[in-house]
Design brief:
By secondary structure, the protein is of the alpha/beta class. It is 27% helix and 21% strand. The strands form three sheets. It has a six-stranded mixed β-sheet with strand order 4-1-5-9-6-10, sandwiched between helices. β7 and β8 form a beta hairpin. 34% of the residues are buried.
């Protein structure tokens, strides 16, 4: 049995009410819920939230809200792992047992059910604790720098200042969409460690929405991809 858990607290600060804010005509959380439903993989889809308005929006979009998340798991320091473990513990108290869990972020409008399905199939067929969505970095991380207290550049990897970009190793990063795990292994291995398999997505389907500028860019990208029929 499989369960999808969408963590959606109410206290987002950089983008107020971020998890239910209108994105191209519907609450942004609905894109994640729709993708989970369309995958037809889950026996239950729940939203873990501390917020009554988010709970109501999620219910209208087809999610279950079996509990209200406690305050100590709803601040800026609570991790996704903490929230998922709490949800699994609450469900186990109701004698609900699952084999696989998929944590799906609520602000992932480019999420595609076909990749959720592919991630599940990879996890089932491979010896791994986790499978998560990733993409390749748009810029060579070895060329990155910081600005020091004197407003001067300070390279993070100074040994590569003369290395040709085509000779630098390709690196990847979390896509911020979904994270499949075997429940028996959940939390025992780091998500971005050797026990995990990254499922690499096209870069145009990945946008980390943390600021209002990110939100504006994401809406422009979404409308463009819809027009090009690259997303549903």
């Amino acid at each position: 049995m499989n369960i999808a858990i969408i963590p959606a607290r109410g206290g987002s600060k950089r983008i107020p009410r971020k998890n239910i804010k209108d994105f191209c005509g519907q609450p942004i959380i609905k894109y994640s819920l729709d993708a989970a439903q369309k995958s037809e993989l889950f026996d239950k889809i729940i939203v873990s939230t501390d917020d009554a308005e988010i709970a109501e929006v999620a219910r209208k979009c087809g999610a279950e809200i079996p509990f209200i998340r406690p305050d100590n798991l709803s601040d800026d320091f609570a991790t996704t792992s903490d929230v998922i473990l709490h949800a699994l513990e609450c469900l186990s108290e109701s004698s609900e047992c699952y084999e696989f869990v998929c944590a799906i972020y609520p602000t992932a409008p480019f999420i595609n059910p076909s990749f959720i399905i592919k991630g599940y199939n990879v996890l089932k067929s491979r010896k791994a604790a986790n499978v998560f969505a990733a993409t390749n970095s748009a810029f060579p991380v070895h060329r990155m720098f910081k600005i020091n207290e004197n407003e001067r550049c300070e390279m993070l990897f100074a040994e590569h200042w003369k290395t040709r970009s085509q000779d630098l190793e390709e690196v990847y990063h979390d896509a911020g969409q979904f994270y499949w795990s075997r429940i028996r292994d959940y939390g025992r291995e780091p998500m971005f460690g050797n026990a995990s398999i990254p499922l690499v997505l096209p870069r145009y389907l990945v946008e980390d929405i943390d600021t209002e500028a990110d939100w504006t860019r994401a809406e422009i990208m979404y409308k463009t991809l819809r027009q090009a029929r690259l997303i549903n």
